[in-house]
Amino acid sequence: MKTIGNIIWHIPFLGFINATIVYLFGLILTATVIAAPLGLGLIEFGKFLYWPFGNAMVSKKNLDVEQNPIWKAYSTIIMVLYFPFGLILAIFAVFEVIGTFITIIGIPVALVVAKSLGTYLNPVNKKCVPSSVADEIKQNIT
Known about the structure:
Radius of gyration: 15 Å
Order of helices and strands: HHHEHHHEH
Number of helices: 7
Strand order of the largest sheet: 1-2
Shape: globular
Distance between the termini: 27 Å
C-alpha cells in the first residue's frame, strides 16, 4: 500500500519535483551557513517528500539526539525568524489539502501534505525517519 501511495504521489501529482525543489533549496541554505539549521531541516523534509508513505518527520528532541547548546540556541533564533514564512506556507498547504481532498485520486496527496503541515511551519530540528520509528516514538510519549 505504501508503494502504491508513493507511485500516486510521484506520477500524476509530480511529487518528485516538489521534493527536489525543497531538497535543493535546503542545500543552498545550508551552504550560506547562516541559515544552516533551516537548510538542514529542509533537506530532511526533501528526503521525506521523496518517500512520504513509509516515512515521517519527527523532532530531534523526541529522538533523544544530543545537540550542542550553542547550536540549539542558534536554531531557535532561526526558527523564530522563519516563523512568519512558515505560517504563510502552512496556510497555503491547508488550501492545498482542501483542494486535493475533493478528488478521490487526490486523497493520498492530501494526506502527505497534511502529514507535513508541522514541517512546513517549522522544519528546524526535524528528522525524517521510517514510520515504524515514528510510531514507536508516539507509543513511548503517551
